[in-house]
Amino acid sequence: MIGFYTPLLILQAFCLYHAYKNNAEQRWYWFIIILPGLGCLIYMYHNFYNRNNINTIAEGVKEVVNSNYKIEQLEKALQFSDNITNKTNLADAYVGNNRYTDAIVLYKECLTGFMSDDPALRIKLLHASYLNKDYNSVIQYGEALESEKRFVEAEEKAGYAWSQYHTGNTAKAESLFESMDKSFKNYKQRAEFCKFLIAINKPDVLKVKLAELNEELEHMKGPERKFFRQDIKEIRELHASYIRN
Where are the transmembrane segments (predicted)? Predict the structure, then answer.
């Protein structure tokens, strides 16, 4: 299937994807779409010539091709069999490709019949809505999920807390973050809690939390370190910035 993509279309798709991911100016979209060959070359020269970033370009093109191929296959599967599993799989892929509005539509379509109150689907809908910056909807979904055991310490609950903050309810946001602040787990949520403490300017509390997290990381074994490597990296960076300075 990949063979059907011409090099120019792949290059154009990559440039559009890169422009979107990096919030490029509107003029670049016109360059890339109206003058695909020349426009792509100018865009790449502007963004990569002085960056010595050929590997990034290659990986970016590969990512675009693989992502598009996966979504096409999932769309075909849904056309062949319109069921909740296929809709959910496609919605998940849309989220991974930053197509949050499309994902939200599918998640909502899944919340019918015996699945109308499914916690896992509702959490996915909340997460997609948060990524789409629809904070009021996130709060609506989060309030309905608060009593769900699956949501109590879910990573997506951090998005619910941030949505409270973004809509002016800082006290509720802090309460939600504190409810996930449990030792030796919830590292992603606790890293978000630290960012929240930065946002509300509580440096003393922040330093205590970062010190606690850093001490926990020191006791982590190999398998744990591998599993939480992204969270560890983020926590270490926060610790380096706000404890050592």
Answer: 28-45
